[in-house]
Each structure stands twice: as C-alpha cells, then as structure tokens.
Batch of 2 targets.
Target 1
Amino acid sequence: MPLRCARRDFLIAASLSAFSLRGQETPTFSTSVKVVNLLAAVRTKKGEIIRDLGKDDFTLTENGRQQAIRYFSKESDLPLTLGLLVDTSMSQERVLNAERSASFGFLDQVLRESKDQVFLLQFDMAVMLRQGLTSSRKKLDEALSFVDTPTRQELSLQRGGGTLLWDAILKASKDVLKDQPNRKALIVLTDGVDTGSEASLAEAIEAAQRADTLVYSIFFSDGGSEGRGPLVRISRETGGGFYEVSKKRDIDSIYASIQDELRSQYSLGFVSDEPVRVSEFRKLQLATKQKGLVVQCRDKYWARR
C-alpha cells in the first residue's frame, strides 16, 4: 500500500476510534481528512417521523459510487444554529402579526440558551439583520417586536425591487452561517415572490448548499400561488422542508412540525473515496434499506479542494 494511502487510512481509523470512545459526541478528525456531514430526517409515506434507525439501515452514494458511512448519531440534543428570515414586504402586511406571534412561541420552545444560537433577519426592499447570533431569548424577543413592514416614508424613498428574498437567503448563508460549526438551518416566512434581488434562485440555493444549511420554507400567501414552486425547490435541494399555511394547518402547527424534525434528525458522516482535485459539487443519494420510507436530505454537497 502506498505510504500516503496508509497514512490517510490510519488517520481515519484513529479519528473514528476516538469517536467511538466518546459515544455520540461530534467527532474530531485530522485536518487532512475531509469529512462530509449530512443531516437527514426519515418519514413514512404518511409523514410520520422515524426515530429508531441505525447506521446499518442506510445506504449512501456519491456520484453513483457507494460510500461507507463512517460515523452516525441521532441529533436530538446537539447544538443548533438557526436563522429566522421574515418577509416584511407590503404583500405580507396582513399576515405579519400572526407570523410574529407564532415566531415568539417557536423561539420559546426551540431555543436552549445553554446550547443553541439564533439570528433574526427581515427583508423587503432591503435586507436588515435585526439581531445577530445570540443565545438570549430576551434579545430575540425584543428584536422580533421591531420586525415590521416599511413605513410610508420608507416606501416613498424606495428605489428598485421590493422583496429581496434571494438576496436575504444568500446573505444569511454567506455572511452568518458559512463558518458556523453546528447544525444549521434557515426558516423563511414568505409568499415566495422575489422582486429585485441581485441574486437568482439558483445562487441562493448554491449559497445555502455551500454553507451546509437546511432551508425550511413557510409559504404564507394572501391568495396567490406564484411563489410556491421556488420555495419547494430551495427546500428540497437543501434538505429542508416546505410548509404551507392554510385553514387546515396554521403557522403554530407548522412550527411544531419543524421543531419536531430538528430534534429527530440523523447525522451521518463519510470520507469520499475520490480525492478532491478541483472544488466542485458532487451528487449524493441517501436511502434506507427498508422500503416505503422517505429520506429528506440534501442531494449534493460542495467538495472543497
């Protein structure tokens, strides 16, 4: 065996051995070993979350090649870094109070001040970071109280587009989440209509994928359906989820579903059998050996040289 390969296998084995001694803590790998991390939720076809699977219940491929799952854990208790993105354009004026009220309740339930961090961003004709990453529920509640639609004076000064949705997701992914080490997710409350962003939908998706960030879209529309398709796409391609507020399903129950999923994820890690010679996206397919289960996971990752 060539010396380089032997050394690489030794480093992986040593890292995994250390991980097994620490139970389900986040493993520490040598910087020379590039581990790809995946978060996944598994459901029945009826939508019920499956929480009792083990490493050997999954199969994983990269660009069609079978990969060995090197480590595995259940993410019910590990830290979470979360971004709450609220559409404050005039099209959301009627539903904004309901969004704000539900968001207060969600933060009360999901935020563990000893472990988790949350930031708050609003977007309309501009993108505004209302509160940077914090573990303080008090700071988040105060910032959320100020989230509102533009004033008449601000509207009179408006130049260009009025709902910078894709710019907001790109900014949150690149400027806030990219270098964060924990599980990462964005929750976006919007009608899905973008008018005026410099970034495209594809660029917003790519930014979230490069930051290893799940996007959960809450489609809150006042009658139109134009924005549904783009939100479904960004949620699917980042491994998050799409939810639609309706008479049958209010925003509080949607938040409860997202919270349940975030506390019921599986974390999987692998080391690619193909060295990274040039930075690129690589396709992923995670599946369960048991038939009839649906795996929610991103379908590509950014392999960085």
Target 2
Amino acid sequence: MSELHKFLFDGLPVRGMVVRLTDTWTEILRRRASNTGTGAYAPPVRDMLGEMVAAAALMQANIKFDGSLVLQIFGDGPVKLAVVEVQPDLALRATATVVGDVAMDATLSQLVNVGNEGRCAITLDPNTKFPGQQPYQGVVPLFDDRRHKIEKISAVLEHYMLQSEQLDTTLVLAANDQVAAGLLIQRLPMQGTENLSGSMVSKENEDEIGLNEHYNRIAILASSLKREELLTLDVETILRRLFWEEQITRFEPLQGDTAPRFACSCSRERVGRMIVSLGREEVESILAERHDIEVGCEFCGVQYRFDPVDAAQLFTAPVLQVPGGSGPH
C-alpha cells in the first residue's frame, strides 16, 4: 500500500516527509511493460523514473499547490525525456522516452547528460489562472557550479530547491521494481509560506542557507539512510532509526485514497481535440495512407483509434472544434 507521512521536529525549524509507493509504482511499470510499442524499462531507467516519481510526490505534498506539478528531465542520452505529473490530490502519472540501448550499469549522466546538455525542469500549472497568467517553470542543469556532472536525482533537486526557495533541503531517493521511496528534510522558512514558484522568498531565508545547526544535524542523520533501508524498511522503523533522539510530531499519514496513486487524465475527447488541431486536410491525408488514426497514451498505454467516420464526426462536433487542443499526454 502506498503511503505518505509528514512530521515536524518539535521546537526546531525543520520539517520532513517520507513517501513509499508500492502499488502506485508497480501499476506504472505494469502499464509500460504491457505496452507492445515500448516494453519494460531497462533497470537504470526504471530506477531513475521511480526516484523522480517519489520526489515529485514529496514536492507536491510539500507546497500544497492548487494545480499540477510536472517534473521533467531531458537531455542528450538514450533517455530523451522523463516526465512525472502530480495533481493536487496526489494523483500521478509518469513516463520516459528511450531511444537506443541502455547499459545495465548506466549512471544518470549516461542516461540523460552525455554531453552536459541535460536539464531538469519543474513546472507549476495552476488550475485557476488569471488573465494572461502562464505556468511557472524553473530549470536547472544536470551539472554543479564547476560544471561537474551530477549523478543523483536527489542532488539535482536539492540544488533546484535551494535556488527556487533559498531553503536548505535534503532528499534521499531510491527505487526498484517494487518500490519507489523518498525522504525529504527541509529547513522551515523564516517568514511566509514558500513554494516552488519562489513568490515569497525572503532575504532572511537566503541568509540562513547552510547555517542552521539544527537543520544541519538532522540533515546529516537523514543522509545516513541507505538505499536498501529506504526500500525495505517501514516508515516507523526508518524514523526511529534515524531520529531516535529527536522529538517529532507526526501527522495523520496519507494512505489508500488520499495517498499518491496512479491516475491518467487522457481521454478520447482530448485525443479528438488534438486530431482536430491538425486540420481537416492533414487528417484526410493520414487516413488515405493508413485507413485509420491510432494514438497511444504514453502514460497509461491506452490506444485510441479513429476510422474515417470517427474523424469526419470530429470536424462536425462543436465541442471538439477547439483550436490548439491538447493531446492525450
């Protein structure tokens, strides 16, 4: 059962969360493996995407944002793009586009950052937008200040959080074919309620970077958590082993329907809008060659087919005549 736990360190400016995704993660992998057009991920790709899924769930739960959070990593390796999308209710979906062979021992840079061109982007897309408002997006490279390649998703995201919020953050992430899990420790903001858009970043937060002794102590303890421990131990055992000398206030865990869970927002209607956006002439040209149009959702594997009659109806149905309509992804 997937679950997410939040906690505070009593009297200290530090908060934390642990996420363990089991059925949620295996459902994502099952749908990928059953998609005959793609097949199962190679283990290094699987583990990278699993760490991204755990991290994105933690970040969405941390900011309480009324909109979708999209975490993307893209570059010049065999993994051209890896995407995780998490909704405010923690419904999530994830996929990776892989071109070519992946070595069984491939590192992060070998997957997406061969020539140091890889990037990580986080997009916050509000459900309700003001006129002219665009989604907020922040981008960081997959290398450090000395242009040395970063080999951990956690390190990339820690750097991102420091830039966007001016808040110290420690992430421990791990994934295999059964579990995607993560531990987040973060220094609380000096004022306001920061989020990834950096809308309330204060000078006080920036001045505190790296200097809070309470956070530094707890971060060292958190960083001692080993990959196998994160993947195999229950949350209670993890917290007891790491922070047995600390006073912690824990909140009601998110489990079952409230926990992070797989859900895909694709639909035949959305695919229809995408087809209409191609234009009647282009659609007729495709149908002349293939006799029908088939579109597969990369997130869930569902296939949508439109024969000539279906396609013709798209251009007469007012509800679908939306210019620039989005596709199933």
